[in-house]
Amino acid sequence: MVKYGLDYTRCRWILPLLLGIGVIFGIIALSGRGWLESQTLPYVQQASLWQNCRRPQEGGDWNCESLMGYAWGRAAAATYLVGFILLVICFALAIIAFAIDTLRFNFIRGIGGLLFVAAVFSIMGLVIYPVKFSSEIEMTGINMFSWAYGFGWTTAIMEICLGFFFCCLPNYEDQILGNVKPTYFYSSP
């Protein structure tokens, strides 16, 4: 990407594309019912960020209770949701930043800073949830934090990595814009 510069049409949209993938992973984490699941048969517990469902016996009906009745449930949902909203804002700003012909590198660095703030909020929600869930809700059988919870962590890790990339990109402004003379290592025979 640095070799061809951000004006190279295929490379210019890599960062907004990665942010878009992060947004999709965040949507999966917010809507997925696999934050916590029973690991062995009979499957008796399944939880999302919003509710906890139990089944007394195999083949029975699921009884669900909202986690919004707990203060920690509201805190985990709110902090993760704030992190997700900041990620969506960064995605929109990245599209605007890379759609403009002349890049504003300070603007790009601001997106990186906002991504770090989004990562902090996401990680807070991802840490509050398992700590308080496992200490305040009775769990039967062997349970594991599952796929939707993993998508939440993937979103947080993407926010951190893309934050570093957005913050470091302005350091290579001259190379990206092509303002540096090439150095040739040539020795005459």
From TrEMBL:
Subcellular location per the Swiss-Prot or TrEMBL entry: Cell junction, Desmosome; Cell membrane; Cytoplasm
Keywords: Apoptosis, Cell adhesion, Cell junction, Cell membrane, Cytoplasm, Membrane, Transmembrane, Transmembrane helix
Membrane topology per record: Multi-pass membrane protein
Entry-linked InterPro entries: P53_induced, PMP22/EMP/MP20/Claudin
One example of a Gene Ontology biological process annotation: cell-cell adhesion
GO cellular component: cytoplasm; desmosome; plasma membrane
Pfam families, sorted: PMP22_Claudin
Transmembrane segments: 12-32, 77-100, 107-131, 151-172
PANTHER family: P53 APOPTOSIS EFFECTOR RELATED TO PMP22 A, P53-INDUCED PROTEIN RELATED
Protein family membership: Belongs to the TMEM47 family.
Entry protein name: p53 apoptosis effector related to PMP-22
Protein species of origin: Brachypteracias leptosomus
Gene responsible for this protein: Perp_1
